[in-house]
Amino acid sequence: MDDVLVLARLQFAITAIAHYLFVALTLGLVTYLVVMQTRWAVTGKETHRRQTRFWGQLYVINYAMGIGTGIVMEFQFGLTWSGLTHFVGNVFGAPLAIETLVAFFAESTLLGLWIFGWNRMGRTLHTVLLWLVALTAYASVFFVLTANGFLNHPVGYETKDGTVRLTDFTALLTNPNALSASAHILAAAVVTGSFFIIAVSAWHLRRRTGHDEFFWSSMKLALPLAPVFILATAALGGWQIGHSVRQTPTKYGERSDRAQALVETFTEKFGPGNYFPPGFSQTAEFVMIIPALFMMLIAVIGGLFMIKRNLIRRKALLWLLTAALVLPYVSNVSGWIFREVGRQPWAVYGVLKTEDAVTPGLGFGTVLTSLLVFGTLVVGLLIVDWALLLRFARRGPDGSHLGRAPGEKSEDTRADLPRQAGDPAPAASSPPPSVPTF
């Protein structure tokens, strides 16, 4: 049983982490897209329209590829964790059902209208659609974390006839564990989106790909906001930890008398056992913080060098801004590990042990097979996603076909910044490259 439990947990961890990597970028990009398209709707400037189309195409790629990992997660609740769904499904399943309606119906429908609504509706209506896409995405995160918040801090329920039943839906929706986590994750997602835009823009500016003004404009939007959202993420993380210390004190090890007293309560109710999580969960808390400090340092230095466009002349710094894209992902994954592994050995804190949440009678071979199949699938989706993102990001705005009217040609509105000494001169006589299709 121990081997089955380890495999089942590893399988869900791989899927959940992979899905979260998609979600973080999706939420971050859609927030910036709202700003870009709203500026286009207000000013009518072609620059903002091109920005929306380019970054929007990357957003659509990431969104589409991330759906697969979400579906795999839903399957696992029924196949591997039926002990959890049978015992707390009446409570845990309610917000997940709402999230499914919001994410897979409302959000996807609105996004489809936005994708195919280019050149078919007015700027204002088209922009309203994107606002609704963003709001439904935020709502989706809230309902997922409402379900997850119940696992960390169960509220609004009663146990009757061997199952947990919902008694107070308002308490479930206003669970401080879920509310603080939602705010923290949304801020962290915007940080991820910021560094994605910064990294792609820095790559083009360093390589002088011919769209300097376009990517300088994107850099001016994302880089100054990055430190703001890093601070917001840290502040909201402190708020979340404040609730967590009171609600799940054993997550922080033997740091408090409250944790020791709670372990005694668990021992009386469930029998002797180790009620503290693995040590690496607390290591993950430390790992989560270090990248955030580096992100703040890099963002502040980059922001200072934006004065009089000095950043353009600092190719080493532009390279660093590109490489810094990995930092928000390291911080996000570490934070997830700290939150979820720190809850162990509980599937529902103080109510249901993880070992009792696994599907009864599940065999080692069955779980190993599903681990290999699902693991290969989600890793493959990540590889394909980043290969597509890299491919279309490198092509620049002229390679974007999102929102392009039939027969519309690529606009080569290249406005280079002043070239520095040693930069190669542009080949004026060279024909323009052919535009790839999407």
Automatic annotation (TrEMBL):
Topology with respect to the bilayer: Multi-pass membrane protein
Compartments, as annotated in UniProt: Cell membrane
Family membership: Belongs to the cytochrome ubiquinol oxidase subunit 1 family.
Keywords: Cell membrane, Electron transport, Heme, Iron, Membrane, Metal-binding, Transmembrane, Transmembrane helix, Transport
Bias kind Basic and acidic residues: ranges: 406-417
UniProt key word Electron transport: yes
Primary location group: membrane
Official protein name in the record: Cytochrome ubiquinol oxidase subunit I
Biased composition annotated in UniProt, kind: Pro residues: 429-438
InterPro entries for the chain: Cyt-d_ubiquinol_oxidase_su_1
Taxonomic source organism: Streptomyces hirsutus
UniProt keyword Zinc, yes or no: no
Transmembrane segments: 12-35, 56-79, 91-116, 128-151, 181-200, 221-241, 286-305, 317-338, 358-384
Disordered: annotated span: 400-438
